[in-house]
Amino acid sequence: MKTPKLLKDSLKGKLKKRVLVHRGFYNYIFNNKRAKGDQRYDMILDDIKPFVEQGYKIYVTGHSLGAALSSLLAFKLAGSDKSWIPKPVTCISYASPFVGTDGFRTAFTLLEQMGHIRYLRVNNDADTVPTIPPFSLGLKRRLMKHVGINLRLSDDSFILSHPNSNGWGFVNAFRNSVLKPVWSVLKYHSLQTHEERMDAQKETLQNMHLNDLYDDGKLLGKEFNRDEL
Question: What are phi and psi of 48, to 5 degrees?
Fold first, then answer.
């Protein structure tokens, strides 16, 4: 995927030109050779522009495959130099599989630091889908990485984390492993289970605001410093 124009001067090496993402997800929305006419991304721009011009902000959401696509769409919009696209772009996804590699995470985190994107990635702790695909295909395999603030739900609690949080690297890697109860994938992957667990934590969650979470130094980590940009 070509590096968004707003990031090219802030990244180094190959990341100035491209970031590596899941080919199937990318092609579906940006480079679908079966599409007759405009790509889905161009169609979305045409659909939302009249509303944005009326003062609406951009929120992107999706579940499962839709979550992966919403991540890429939000990333593309947030990094666009089109003056009419309001920032930040907000994305809230449910049960997203992995979308990109470490370079994608680097670029995504930079957009977060620049204030161009806000992303809450919600998933159930026992869901298998967010653990796949664990690495890219091809001769040179690369580990896939999640992005954004993660709201991980269990039956009676939740955990908030971010890839930039100090001390969470190994813990998150283990939680994102495929060591999940695959026999219950339909239960834990369903949107209904997400809703039920969020309803159980409604009293706490309804008092949280995404912008406030992005101002939480403990959650985002010491290296996440927007004042330096």
Answer: -90, -20
